[in-house]
């Protein structure tokens, strides 16, 4: 039985919960500092499976790498524009209050 509707990737649920907890002072940032520092230092381990996946499908990436690179660049630019626009809109609303 599924309790959550998957509208966003599941990995973002934890980030949203952490952000909300920090915003509403549910979590103490000072107590989390050691854990967060450890995670940041060992973050490279999280990228090993992605690197292995790239090597497993190297022929596919080699055949369509230009398209993948173009798609990645375009979507990154679009995302940065949308985040900037959203921030400016929210900042203006909070500034007016």
Task: Walk me through this protein's architecture.
The termini are far apart. Helix content is about 75%, strand content about 0%. By secondary structure, the chain is mainly alpha-helical. The chain is built from 4 helices and no strands.
Write the layout of secondary structure elements.
Blueprint: H1 11-23, H2 29-41, H3 48-56, H4 58-96
Could you write a compact summary of the structure shown?
The chain is built from 4 helices and no strands. It is an all-alpha fold. The mean pLDDT is 85.
| Count of individual helical segments | 4
SS-based class: mainly alpha
N- to C-terminal distance:
43 Å
Number of DSSP E strands: 0
């Amino acid at each position: 039985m599924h309790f959550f509707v998957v509208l966003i990737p599941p990995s973002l649920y934890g980030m949203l919960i952490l952000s909300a907890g920090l915003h509403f002072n549910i979590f103490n940032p000072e107590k989390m500092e050691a854990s967060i520092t450890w995670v940041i230092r060992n973050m490279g381990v999280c990228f090993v499976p992605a690197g292995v996946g790239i090597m497993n499908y190297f022929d596919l990436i080699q055949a369509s790498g230009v398209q993948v690179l173009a798609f990645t660049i375009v979507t990154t630019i679009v995302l940065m524009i949308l985040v900037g626009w959203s921030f400016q809109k929210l900042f203006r609303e909070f500034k007016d209050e």
